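User: I need a structural model of LPXTG-motif protein cell wall anchor domain protein from Actinomyces johnsonii F0542 for a docking pre-check later this week. Nothing fancy, just the predicted structure tokens so I can convert them on my end. Input:
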Amino acid sequence: MNHDEGTLDVLNRLRMDVSALGVHELDHGLDDLEGRVLPYATFPMLAANVSGSDALSAEGNGRGVFIKEVDGVRVGFIGVVTDELPKLVSSSTRVQLTVAPAVATANARAADLKDGDPANGEADVVVVLSHEDAASTATSFSKNVDAVVAGRSHVSYAQTVTGVEGNQIAVVQPDHYGLKLGMVRLNYDRDTKKVSVVNVENRDLKQEYCYEDDFGGVDIFSYKRYNKMMDLGAARPVAQLGVDYLRGSDGVTPGVHTGTESTAADLVAESYRYWLADIDPIEQPPASTHYVGVVRADDLKADFRYKSTGNYHGEVPADQVDGLFTVDEVRNVSPDDKAMGYLSITGADLKALIAQQWRPGADPSALQLGLSANVDVIVDAAAQTDGGAAPTIREIRVDGQVLGDTDTVVVASTTELLTSGAGFTLPNGSGVVNVGSLGRDITTNYLASFNQQVLKPSYAKRQVGVSVTPKGASTDTVSVTMDSLAYTHPTEQVLGARRVRAVSGDKEFFSQNVDLTVDRSGPTTGKASFDLTIPADAPTGACRSAEATTCRWVTLESVNGVGQVLNSFYVEVPADASPGATPSATPGAQPEPSATTSPTPAPSAEPTVGADPTTPVPGAGGTASQGPGGEDSGDGRVTASPTATPGDGSGAAPSENPTAVPDGGSAASPTAPVGVGGLPPSASGGGAGESEARGGASGRSTSGSGGWSLARTGVSLGSGVIALTLVISGYLILRRRRQAD
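Assistant: Understood. Predicted structure tokens for LPXTG-motif protein cell wall anchor domain protein:
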């Protein structure tokens, strides 16, 4: 809100001795760091492994080192920042700075501090301040390092480890946002000049009270009134969740798998798309057929949980808090002050961006992008590039239309990603428009726009792998391989795709359960492989992607446990492969399965796991009948509450002939012997849950801003400083009043 000056104020009042440089100090560029941040802080910020900035190199005693004498003992601090810094800053900052390996640099500086040469600085005790995860680096430090204070990964860590030379090192990582106070106690023997570890711990500040004199009588409690008002604003509910929106799971630990699609990341990406149509008209992006939202999976630091974690200060009854999602909880999901922007690119550029999710030889080998709801990607794992290591992108559909390589699309994301500063490369980074909004505020506004509707995911996947090849000499039978049909968290797997079925006209003629084994490092969870014989009486029409003129085609659908269609694709073979077949209609006129003709009608709500307290569905319900997927299809309660499915509305109008292959432009691979492509939800039998009905490809809301009134939290707009301390809340309320006028 104020470029973290409030945080710096508190650290200055605490009389902080020293800090390592982090990533977000460079969010606004090197000039901002040198001209504003470093002078504002009363303590040095160290980055021994970063060169290219004279001001940064001069911090402390220079070269990323600061030495302080404590009771006659010289303590040397070495600051280093993550090796991944070049991927996490803007391209303009990246070319100005050079980053050396953090651990190697720290070990080299530590050796200098203990080599007995006063010319390069000497210290009795050496502490490394490392902006990198402790668990991944702690044991790599040398015998000259006595303690490590780490950060970045937001994970609590406190233990004594054995270094690379057999030495004992005290390592602490005190969680994040001041939730814990890291304590390291070392013993220095003045006679032997040896350092030993006494203990290392993290003290939970939520369970302890820090008195005013704990830090030398520093008066940090002048912030009490400010903090109380901020707490009240943060407690304001902005959305009503019906279930969780979760990050990826590796099958063991929830929230750690960033190489797979997640409902949480897709929700955030959809909020970015919505923002494009909602920003000030003066800053409106240029006219374009398509708006798309994109977010890196690892930008999300928490889940959207149904089980409330908010503090409502007694303003909401305890039995009514579950499902409410607050401003503060949105901040927990997107805690970083990442500025938002947009960039106009081509369809080919978007395809290249999505292809960068696979990173052969890197760790992790995949980093997923959350995509807005109007984007559907077909990945062909069988047609690989880069020596067979990375799948190709067969087709991208935006707003129900195949995206051509020369089509224009406007992408909304963080300026970090758009300027090629987040490990992804985009052309024309200089064309990024930064309008000064923060990602978390955009997501907050988007959630509030639903006006207290209960929000649930559709569990349709944005990115699915589909490969279809002829089986033998005849193209009547094809081999189909599908992946990425399911999410990774167990509760979402119950609610998501359970089986794949093939439909010809209005007849289901094939079904197979989805293998839900979790891909722990990539996006392919939810697999199905089978041979499929296209019926001789299948509908025919002009070929879309097969190398022929007229094709017979069927629909492949992934469905959940009660038969609701989640994702749909067409598979086509040349019609002349079956001489007895005759064209059934011209393209755009032949029938194809819809919600009213498919064998299993879609009910009005999806099932959930009644026994799992992490994903309950409030409201009246009953027991859903077992779905057609077999014994493993699951059952549970169904909700009777009105729901909205954020991001289900693609903006495409339902087809007048719901079983016709929609007119969506040319396919991406028109020279294959058999064809495959995606179908928009409106043409494939409908999706699970109710469509968001955003009112068009732009994603503009048709229902106003919405959100809870501030009266729900006991705060009034009569407060003289409400506009300052409750920026998000004030914006929403004032905006809704303007619309009401």
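Before docking, keep this in mind: Residues 134 and 293 are 33 Å apart (CA to CA).
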